[in-house]
Design goal:
Blueprint lengths: L5 H25 L3 H11 L1 H23 L3 E10 L10 H4 L2 E13 L2 H69 L5 H36 L29 H20 L3 E12 L9 E10 L7 H68 L4 H35 L2
Antiparallel strand pairs: 1-2, 2-3, 3-4
Length: 421
Amino acid sequence: MLILTYGRLWKFIFFSLFLGLCSLAELRAQERTLDFFLNQATKNSPLLRDLSGQQSALALDSILLRAQQRPQVKATSSGLYAPVIKGWGYDEALSNGQSLDALLGIDYVVMGKQRKNALFEALKIRGDSARYAVRITELDIRRSIAEQYIAAYASQQQALFSREVSALLGREDTILRTLTRANTYKQTDYLAFLVTFQQQKLAGRQAEISYKTDLATLYYLAGIADTITVPLSPPAFAETRPVSLPNSIFLQKFRLDSVRIEGERAAVDLAYKPQIGIFANAGYNSSFILQPYKNFGTSVGFSVSVPIYDGHQKRLQYSKLEIEDRTRAFYRDFFTVQQKQQIDLLNRQIAQTDQLFDEIGSQVRFAKGLVEADTRLLQTGDVTVADFIIAINGYMDAQNLYRQTVIDRLKLLNQLTYWNR
């Protein structure tokens, strides 16, 4: 017999509470949240890393472009020997018989301010497009991860509810077996109940398998090398304010395309303006025919290119850009209407879903109350097994409807969060 003093009793109670709190904290620490998977997915995404690498490469392209606009210095050398044997060989008037050159050359393309600005503007557009691709890709990843998280959470809730119903039926199985032996219920009534009980246990196993499969898929999509089965917290979505459609991130693509087309128009104009190049070299260039030791020298020159006629290619390029711009505007207008319709539809669906919760909640409470009442009557033999089974099935149907409505609302919120950007 264990006898505890008053002080020891309080120590025992405190230690028990401490162990309970530690176990609860450990369970909560094992829970995974939606934010955890979203952060892991964006961190592990190879596509996002690729796009980030492209942004870094564009920064180097800017430095490369500046280097290309500076004078280009290069050293060249070549030698030639064309022998004439017994009168056979190249014409020495053309080949000089032999030659040697070793030159240091400088080339510089005179580039006006407009041409420089156009090149850097094109580079800026590429950078803006890369940043836009990163944002859109991140939004797509977050939406797909949230969809899978909701699916896994729904499977988890189904598994938990199956356990709850199985535990309830397990308790009633013990009572019914005793009452059947006492001839309060027929053997056939107990067998009918047992069939329902076994079906529920099979449904519970299927729910567990479905949860583990959905969770493994979630790990896979997020790039997490793990197989541990952990509880998932209810997904939470931050409330989003209605987006101003002209400022929507999805319309930024059409604005970037418009700027790109304008840049291509400017590039067409610049291609038909005169281009000037300057070059100079210094070194040794000799045919060894006359005073080769004096053939050190230098030369300077320039080149001018002025387009005159190319078969109206400029006008044709303008026409192509006009067609592309009209197509872009059509897609933009069509997408704007679609996005507005999508957001309005999602808001209506969420409002209609919210209106169902009170009614479904009342149905769940009534069904649960009927099960509790039939459970008490079952112990005294005042309710048929068939009526109890009907009450159990009604309670499961009501719970499934409530749970499915919750999941549907979470899916709608995920879609609204995506489009409301």
